[in-house]
Amino acid sequence: MPCDHVLLPCLPGRRLQCDVMMSPRPFRFLAWLSLAAIVFVTVSPIGLRPHDPLPVNLDRALAFAVMAFLFVMAYPRRPLVLLVLLVASAGAIEALQLLAPTRHAHLLDASVKGMGAACGALLAWSWQSLHLRARHVLAARRRR
Asked: Helix, strand or coil for residue 100?
């Protein structure tokens, strides 16, 4: 089975290619599942929306942060492309509410969702970068 490789900054002026330790398959499934869940919750009538104790803007940001984290972990070769697509999807998914007569799209909601997506993507990229650097250091120690 071919491994996914990721290119991340290692040292100034150098790039290191290394295997991603975790398989992207579970992340891919969960990423697409989270996207489907977010679209359903965003477009469905307000009565079908799940209720939780979190403030609504925090809830929105966390949902998109988790989704973005999962997508960047699932597709580690293209973190910047994913970042742009995920932030744009926040606006597009919010605009889908215009199709539902009981829902209303708001620019502030799209902004909160976009910021959540950006934070989740940045967190996943940071995780991958730190993981890669740690593997590089451990490999260098083993060679000594």
From this structure: coil
CB atoms within 10 A of CB 86: 25
Distances (CA, A) of 121 to 27, 55, 126, 130, 140: 13, 22, 9, 14, 29
Q: Name which of 54, 66, 114, 107 is nearest 88 in CA terms.
A: 114
What's the whole-model pTM score? 0.78
Express each pLDDT in 73-110 by its tens digit.
Answer: 999 988 899 999 999 999 999 998 888 787 888 999 99
Helices (DSSP H) in the chain: which residue ranges?
24-43, 56-74, 79-95, 107-143
b/e 50-77 (16+ beta carbons within 10 angstroms → b): eeeeeeeeebbbebbbbbbbbbbbbbbe
Q: Sketch the domain layout of the chain as residue ranges.
A: 23-143
